[in-house]
Design a protein that fits this description.
The structure holds 2 protein chains of 2 kinds.
Chain A (H helix, E strand, L loop, with lengths): L4 E3 L4 H10 L3 E4 L5 H6 L7 E4 L9 E4 L2 E5 L4 H6 L1 H6 L1 H8 L4 H6 L2 H7 L6 H8 L2 E4 L3 E3 H4 E3 L2 E2 L7 E7 L3 E8 L6 E10 L2 E7 L7 E2 L1 H9 L24 H17 L1
Chain B lengths: L14 H5 L15 E7 L5 E7 L1 H4 L4 E6 H6 L31 E2 L5 E7 L2 H10 L1 E6 L25 E8 L1 H9 L3 E12 L8 E7 L4 E6 L4 H11 L8 E4 L15 H12 L4 E4 L2 H7 L2 E13 L5 E13 L26 E10 L5 E2 L6 H18 L4 H8 L6 E2 L5 E2 L4 H11 L5 H10 L2 E11 L7 H6 L8 E7 L5 E5 L8 H13 L6 E4 L17 H28 L6 E4 L2 E4 L5 E3 H10 L13 E6 L8 E11 L5 E11 L6 H21 L29 E5 L17 H18 L10 H9 L3 H5 L1
Parallel strand pairs in B: 1-12, 10-11, 13-16, 14-15, 21-22, 28-29
Antiparallel strand pairs in B: 1-5, 2-4, 2-6, 3-5, 7-15, 8-13, 9-10, 9-12, 13-14, 17-18, 19-27, 20-21, 20-26, 23-24, 24-25, 27-28
The chains are: A alpha+beta, B alpha+beta.
Amino acid sequence: MYAFEYARPSSIAEASALLKANPEAKLLAGGQTLLPAMKLRLASPSDLVDLGGLADMRGIAVKDGALVIGAMTTHAAIAESADVAATVPGFAAVAEGIGDPHVRNRGTIGGSLANNDPSADYPAAVLALGASIVTNTRTLSADDFITGLFSTALEDGEIITAISIPAPQSFIYVKMPNPASRFALVGVAVARAAGGVRVAVTGAGGDGAYRWSEAETALAANFSPAALDGIKADPAMMIADLHAAADYRAHLVGVIARRAVAG
Amino acid sequence: MTDQGIGASVKRKEDLRFITGNGRYVDDINRPGQSYAVFVRSPHAHARIKGIDMSAAKAAPGVLGIFTGDDLARDKVGGLICGWMIHSKDGTPMKAGPHPALAQGKVRYVGDHVAVVIAETLNQARDAAELVSVDYEPLAAVVDLGAAQAAGQPQVHDEAPANTVYQWHLGDKDATDAAFAKAAHVTKIDLVNNRLVPNAMEPRAAIGEYDFGADSFTLYTTSQNPHVARLVLSAFIGIAPENKLRVIAPDVGGGFGSKIFIYAEETVCVWASRKVRRPVKWTADRSEAFLADAHGRDHLTTAELALDADGNALALRAKTKANLGAYLSTFASSVPTYLYAPLLSGQYNIPAIYCEVDGVYTTTTPVDAYRGAGRPEATFVVERLMEVAARETGRDPAEFRRKNFIRAFPHQTPVIMAYDAGDYEACLDKALEMADMKGFAQRKAASAKAGKLRGVGYSAYIEACGIAPSRAVGSLGAGVGLWESAEMRVNPIGTVEVLTGSHSHGQGHETTFAQVVSSKLGIPIDQVTIVHGDTDKVQMGMGTYGSRSGAVGASAIVKAADKVIAKGKRVAAACMEVPEDSVDFAEGSFSARGTNKKMTFGEVALQAYVAHKFDSEEIEPGLKEGSFYDPKNFTFPSGVHVAEIEIDMETGVTRIDRWTAVDDFGILINPMIVEGQVHGGIAQGVGQAMLEGAVYNSDGQLVTGSFMDYCMPRADDVPSFNVAMSSTPCPSNPLGVKGCGEAGAIAAPAALINAITDALGHEDIAMPATPQAVWRAIQKMPRKQAAE
């Protein structure tokens, strides 16, 4: 780890100002990605702006039928929340399936979404659920928020404050873990809501988590695993690595999607 | 008599300190004035060093010294050694290049040591290390074991033409070829034994400290054999004479072989402590451990088994290429030769065996002993051959093995080993029953109904432990003897300290050795303290590896205890005023036969020290005895493991449904600890078979350089193990013990791959059988079966 300056602001406005003032500054949420990268000297922010002091960024509530989760809420808190279990139980399962107990007790939903790791679980979940990402300046749809590999629509000084999830009719996320890292080798989230069926895939896409529109169309007509039988993910779009070449990943997208639909 | 002696599953004495965080590992030790070392490591697999610019680094804050291979050479610090001479079949000695602790002229693997930076703090050392500018001229890497010996490949060492260290063989080629010529059936297979990264929980660490007053060094190091480390650092590397070098290996958090070896880092730390006049500490981070801890296995083998028409084994032939990496590590040469080929007879009566092994340099991390060391490789060859041969000839794999079992002991194999005892059929019968093989067909049908494949695989392994008879290994090229020492210090009130040359790094010696003493002397284990891991306390020893500590280390303790008892009888006889030959010792008491006179062990100990009741010219005061025990044979643990697996055909995910292990370890000192060793060994074997595999790209970069990509076994990767024993005492040592530390890792890979190939209906899958590999193998299944 290289030396860095540390600040613990007491308001979101102060945090945003600190972030804007230092181009090399990074927000510290749960630190489960940033701190290991810093320890390995792969990341060297000049300043860490710790959001840990901002109590109003933590917590879970149900407002107007939507689940609102503060950005600094930990995965463990989401997994254990009665509100989540009552509104979007499948989302509690997503949180419970992340990492290990250490990661779940430190890592936050806002931090994970801001990082937008292409193998993380939340990106697919928020895409499928049609969630909104609330920041200190605006509200973005998940579709607009997620822009690519480790890339989001967040601008300088912009901080995710909450995630708002409209309650779906049903939601399920199924993942095939990478045997080593246990990140998603392929993860598929399927949601049914008033607006239709939304299917999102993580771990597989070369450009990060994505909506799988062919699957959505097929499932809108016939919500059953068999509806996906003729639809194949394109290997050319897939991540390829030691654990899964593109053809295997593309195959798994279909398998895991069918399992998600089967529930 | 106590209920804590041999055979009692007493809880481990050492666990209280370990589970309460009171263990004392090398990294827990901090010496006054301590400085920190960081190694500048090669980013290239193969490169010439054209220059090293240290000017910026030397000016960095806190830097105390920066050293390169030239500095070591100037101080006449010798290179690292390989302690086992192998001769090629043409009689020439192995061709080894030099192995300097810090590179000279060339680097030969990613992670090779180029320079060391020593600074006041760890961060200062890291910062300065980044400022060391090395001018490399990159050379082509040699990564592919199969191609490394081909003409035109880059040379790793000039001393070893065609990157070939040796071309060794064992066995009778003519007899073997003749048997193959008349065989009714020949089974031939190609096998890959994958490369593994040991990954002990505690990374390696070292603190070197020079005492200017005493003109002597102390090295704290994560070693499985501190005395061997001292011997090598003194006699070969030339740090200091043995009486000026103390080596301490305190609590050590796992070794699995990787902490046997004497590495560059501890050599440099201890040497540099005099240069910078400060204690020098280094602790590997996990990334360094991946690059610089000696890896394990990495063989390519073609193996054949010849059968007669009745299914009797006639002969076995194997040709192996063994990847030794970029330099020869401490015991690297012996692992794919004398620790491998002599086990190729397995549990079977095979009249003729011939094995050829090429030891090959590549520009990869050095490869050396890893849990099982040669024996997992041999077992994988034998047990894959047996399984495939049974399938090819339409025989039941279990019954085919039974048909070929050795039944009479002692049994001389055609490859050195003389098996002393065993009952292979008893293990097989018990395993078949425990595994409920009668119900397998039904379970397979149920799996098929759910669209899944089910398979069962056997592994009837043998290993040679209790290494080793010194004279025998000396005749095979070993540079050392492999006896063990023990010293028993009885205190005046009858408590006992046992100093052993074995070293515990997870095995539980503080408990099991105390149990041996408890049985011998009839005292509770709390009155026994086991001392190990410090060359200033224990005079000499050979350390712990190769499942030798029970068979050799504990046997030395028995021998020392026998001497203590003999001396005690003389003291007791004098005290009780009876003839010495009328004194018996049993259940912790000396008694005079034919009288009611009796003295407890503690009373005799006290009398030995007060020395009031005997003539000191006839009996020396005190009660302390030492012994060196040299085993007369290897021990031969054996067993049968049965793996039953279910494969998800859509994803390729293999789930281990049940695991049955019936092992013959001879007499068990602590059955609970033995069972734990079996569990850990199986988990490591499952790791090799399904999860782990070190992968280099063609540039020689380690692709699997962290736990993100290198898959270690987790609790949910293995089932609850069904473990039982079927024991035949070992006739070759006083305790009848055989050793249990490696068995699981030896047995498991073949059992699992046999099960997976049984499910697939074809043999075309290599380790590790990851979900992706299994899915690809499913695509190669005969169409009919796939449809079932």
